[in-house]
Amino acid sequence: MKLSRRQCNLLLGMGIVMLFFWVTRGYTWYANDLQSDPYLALLHLPIIAVSLAIGAYLAYLGIKGRRQTGG
Length: 71
Fold this sequence. Notes:
The protein is mostly helical. It has helices spanning about 5-35, 40-70. Helix 1 (about 5-35) packs antiparallel against helix 2 (about 40-70).
């Protein structure tokens, strides 16, 4: 499957935004949730990890696609 440069830019942008939001959410989780309620914190940990992995993969696909489209 071939992606256009615009689609690659969209993937890259979505990945960067997801990473930014979930890194800040991870910091909030560490600073607030982990100290107040450990059970609730353990429920949020997999969500944060999966979301960071998805964001990293989207950014990777966007960068890889941009390189292949000549940019």
